[in-house]
Design a protein that fits this description.
The structure holds two protein chains of two kinds. Chain A is globular and about 75 Å long. Chain A is 36% helix and 18% strand. Chain A is α/β, with parallel strands linked by helices. Chain A has an eight-stranded mixed sheet with strand order 1-2-4-3-5-6-7-8, with helices on both faces. Chain B has helices spanning 2-12, 17-58. The radius of gyration of chain B is 24 Å and the shape is rod-shaped. The longest helix of chain B has 42 residues, at 17-58. The chains are: A alpha/beta, B mainly alpha. Chain A binds chain B through residues 2, 5-6, 9-18, 21-22, 193, 250, 252-255, 280-286, 288-293, and chain B through 31, 34-35, 38-47, 49-51, 54-55, 57-61, 63-66, 68.
């Protein structure tokens, strides 16, 4: 009888512990908003372009009394092939609760129906969305005069591209960018987790698809290669005028290879760009094993928003 | 044979009811301690299992950072 009791107790404890760990939110309720009309309103699936995915959700604060508002765009993750703005509702609500107009923007995903989609074309859709977001916000009575851009993973990559490459043409001055685990460089030698350091052909194929250009294996390692991937390599666009940045990466990341991060950090340091780089020493792409550092990352995001996005 | 041996043992080592009761309580205590250890092992292994699976999916170390 005691044998059964031991076995049952072990299984129950194992299961309960596993469920608790899976459901535990390291940030607690700090970034969770009890949403209601007193916080803001959500306008869904507003159109910004002719592609089916060219839609954005707008989260506008209940307080309509300000002269102007800051816009924060958050771009969803999904490996450039999956994901939706609806998955970021929590962070968008939180941003809106801080008094910003927040926007989650969809972009055309690369899939069987859209085989020509590239990271470059996605970044251009994001770039084209901003004037429509500004217009829609103004129609609703929110005059926007500054913006921040943010995202995670694929969204982080696209956020960095907008912040560093496209800010000069932005209808709103870009004040800062924050992102986590977004790839910012595409050198085969760094993408070891994909085996691309071992195969120039595979590297040329993948990065050519991502850049939307023909890249051959013998271009790898030449200046011609840098030119070919520049449009999707955010770190190449960092200058002394680039916007303040908060970014986070995991040392064991195999999806956005950790080795690829060094180019961005070096570019930010060499150009003396204000930035906070938070390295998660035990985590991978999910930043899942360093909860204290995740709290630090969000603290820094808030600090930068307060410092650079206040009117 | 055993009955005889046990009987002889009992004859040579008579125990009071109180001593037999104390032995019984010690056995229950041992079982409770074992149960506590089993539960603790379940908790630890449950957390480690989730960490292991997540690490397989997205990368990460088994130890360090978060507690388990």
């Amino acid at each position: 009888m005691w044998g059964f009791l031991y076995a049952g107790a072990f299984v129950a404890a194992f299961a309960a512990s596993a469920v608790f760990k899976m459901k535990y939110n390291p940030l607690g309720k700090k970034y969770t908003v009890a949403w209601s009309d007193s916080v803001g309103k959500i306008y869904k699936d507003l159109v910004y372009g002719k592609e089916e995915a060219n839609k954005f959700d707008l989260y506008v604060p209940a307080d309509t009394g300000k002269e102007s508002y800051g816009l924060v765009i958050y771009l969803h993750a999904g490996g450039f092939t999956t994901g939706d703005k609806s998955g970021d509702a929590d962070i968008l609500k939180w941003l809106c609760s801080k008094g910003y107009v927040a926007a989650g923007v969809n972009y055309t995903l690369r899939d069987e129906a859209h085989p020509d989609t590239s990271v470059y074309s996605q970044s251009m859709e994001i770039k084209n969305s901003v004037p429509y977001i500004v217009q829609e916000a103004e129609k609703l009575g929110y005059k926007l005069d500054r913006m921040a851009v943010s995202g995670g993973s694929a969204g982080g990559c696209l956020a960095l591209l907008y912040a560093y490459r496209d800010a000069v043409e932005s209808p709103l001055p870009v004040r800062m960018v924050f992102e986590a685990v977004g790839p910012s460089s595409f050198y085969a030698a760094d993408w070891t987790s994909y085996g691309l350091d071992q195969s120039a052909e595979a590297a040329a194929t993948l990065f050519g698809i991502m850049a939307g250009k023909e890249i051959s294996a013998d271009m790898i390692g030449t200046p011609g290669y840098d030119e070919a991937v520049k449009d999707i390599s955010a770190f190449m666009w960092v200058t002394e005028h680039s916007v303040p940045t908060v970014c986070a990466y995991g040392k064991y990341d195999r999806v956005c290879p950790f080795e690829s991060v060094k180019h961005l950090i070096r570019a930010l340091q060499e150009n003396h760009v204000a930035h906070e780089y938070i390295e998660f020493p035990h985590s991978g792409h999910g930043l899942q094993n360093d909860n204290k550092l995740y709290k630090l990352y969000m603290d820094k995001v808030e600090e930068y928003l307060d410092r650079y996005m206040d009117s | 044979m055993f009955g005889t041996g046990l009987g002889r043992y009992a004859q040579n080592n008579p125990r009071s009811g109180k001593e037999r009761m104390e032995e019984k309580m010690t056995l229950i205590q041992k079982r409770i301690i074992t149960l506590a250890i089993v539960i603790l092992a379940g908790i630890v292994l449950g957390r480690l299992a989730v960490r292991a699976v997540l690490n397989l999916l997205v990368g990460g170390s088994m130890f360090g950072g978060n507690f388990l």
